[in-house]
Amino acid sequence: MERDPYFNQLVQEGSSEILKRIVELEEKLYEWVKIPKRENWMDIVETIQYTTLSDSSIRRAVRKGELKASRKTGKLLFQKEAIDKWLKSNPKKLLPPF
What we know:
2 strands; 2 domains; mainly alpha
């Protein structure tokens, strides 16, 4: 890994400057990796986590037309409201298997 060009200078200036630079870099990194939030939309992984159901259960519901999904982006995207509506219409989906 390549060192920050200012690393040696910061070491000479003292630890408070190093900490200040670390905070600055952390903020830049956060801005770089931050993904814009999709309002009320979830991908398949987020839907699995939200519902605690399996991938196959969700895909089966989409295939049967029970759960509405968008494929405009090339992947399945679900509106939170559609997921909630589907779960309410199928209360046994919420029960753990025995």
